[in-house]
Amino acid sequence: MTDPVGQSSRERYRAQVRAEIKQHAWEQIAAAGVPALSLNAIAKQVGMSGPALYRYFASRDDLITALIRDAYRSLADTVRAAFDSGTDLLGLAGVIREWARDDPQRYFLIYGTPVPGYHAPDDITAISFEVMAVLLEACGAPPADTRTTPFDAHLRDHRTWAFDHPAPAPTLHRALSFWTRLHGVLSLELAGHFTGMEFDPELLIAEELDTLPHGDRGLDPADRVSG
Amino acid sequence: MTDPVGQSSRERYRAQVRAEIKQHAWEQIAAAGVPALSLNAIAKQVGMSGPALYRYFASRDDLITALIRDAYRSLADTVRAAFDSGTDLLGLAGVIREWARDDPQRYFLIYGTPVPGYHAPDDITAISFEVMAVLLEACGAPPADTRTTPFDAHLRDHRTWAFDHPAPAPTLHRALSFWTRLHGVLSLELAGHFTGMEFDPELLIAEELDTLPHGDRGLDPADRVSG
DNA sequence: TGTACATCAGTGAACGCGCGTTCACTGATGTAC
DNA sequence: TGTACATCAGTGAACGCGCGTTCACTGATGTAC
């Protein structure tokens, strides 16, 4: 009773119910945030009794961890797919922003308030590195004549974390700036801190990315020496 | 039975107990995050019964709102004091970062995951504008010959929110870049997303602020035209 | 200065609730001969 | 193809818990004459 994918029908059913549980979990989170996520409430929505959930998730924390993993997976896949189909940095920012605005609470589940003492399992941090890997590829090699800034020099001595994806310091720098600038705008926007200010965050992002360090836009590298 | 400040001793006592309650609340939040904040647990720490807290706060939400207000107040005062004593933008960033690292959960109470549907009372948003006001002052007037970027042009048409503190578009732009870049690094740092990357966030911030738009550092304005 | 009264901080019992989780059990589904 | 057995999804009752909040009441503190 196994199909081409090697799944028994029981396994297929399990996966299906698991997915359904997670979807209702997402809906609850979107509606009232993670703290309000209740196993009993989910069970009711799925149409089974509370204890039945324990056939699918070992505990509430286990469910949340699965949601976090899926969120990272979704983001990593989205970014990877966009990059592989030729999207540039600005485009990637747009894709990430779209992903985040699509479900702000999913974004915040990853990048929002951390739970003191919680440490994500290794497989999840591995997925988060996938995102960074795409960014490093997208940032590409810097122009040969790029003068290095103090932070570049610092990065040259502190980049063992990127050994899986060896990149010159200016590329790391560029990726980090992209990453932090985008999150700066995005997290403030999604958290509502721009409320009342009627400017368009998208334009701010565009310009922030237009002036990334070591870009081909902006100024001549020679002018970028400074102190 | 009133003192020079016009507080009766009862009022003084009330203020004192309120402060004590809030302090224990902060300790709980620092230890396990807002969701774990429990009125009964606080009461126990303060040394009184649960219901007694209701003499000081109308509800759990009321207490949390007070904490949020205090957090904003503390940040606004800190930033204002630093600026008034001559601190420049980089210094302000340092002060804000210090403030945040001092109690990350306090930072995240303001800038972290928003609670769907929650809207802060007006007096709190007013305090948040105080912070922005200081930034606008600190960003000062741009050099006269500054070419305007597309985002500057956009801001010229969308800055009614800053009418209380009239500032030219390039100044708004500069303040927004400062604000978003700082938060980008800070929120990722405090949430632990730099774990495993051994670079120093302070250096990244320094360089991000060194290349703010319309600055006197970096390049000649003429080179900043670009498209 | 002393007495009568009002204010109000704090208590203890109680309410109702929903939570996560366990357990023993039923019944359907798939597996092996 | 049919039967015997193993697997496992799902149930219902129950546990223990701590939560926020209300209520009637006590006793101390401050106020007014």
Protein model, in words:
The structure is a homodimer of 227-residue chains. With 227 residues, chain A is an all-alpha fold. Chain A has 2 domains: 1-57, Arc Repressor Mutant, subunit A; 65-226, Tetracycline Repressor, domain 2. Helices cover 60% and strands 0% of the residues of chain A. Chain A is globular and about 65 Å long. Chain A starts with 8 loop residues before the first helix and ends in a 17-residue tail after the last helix. At the A-B interface, helix 1, helix 5, helix 7, helix 8 and helix 9 of A face helix 1, helix 5, helix 7, helix 8 and helix 9 of B.
Could you name the key traits of this structure?
9 helices, disordered C terminus, Arc Repressor Mutant, subunit A, 2 domains, DNA-binding, 227 residues, mainly alpha, Tetracycline Repressor, domain 2, globular, homodimer
What is the CATH architecture assignment of the largest domain in chain A? Orthogonal Bundle
Multimerization state? homodimer
The largest pleated sheet of chain A is described as: none
Q: Report helical residue fraction of chain A.
A: 55-70%
The number of distinct structural domains of chain A comes to 2
Q: Specify the overall morphology of chain A.
A: globular
User: Quick check: average pLDDT of chain A?
Assistant: 91
Number of helical regions of chain A: 9
The N- and C-terminal alpha carbons of chain A lie at a distance of 69 Å
DSSP strand tally of chain A = 0
Interface with most residues: A-B, 66 and 66 residues
CATH superfamily of the largest domain in chain A: Tetracycline Repressor, domain 2
Structural class assignment of chain A: mainly alpha
Radius of gyration of chain A: 21 Å
Q: CATH top level of the largest domain in chain A?
A: Mainly Alpha
CATH topology category name of the largest domain in chain A: Tetracycline Repressor, domain 2
Poorly predicted ranges of chain A: 217-227
Strand content of chain A: under 5%
Q: H/E element string of chain A? A: HHHHHHHHH
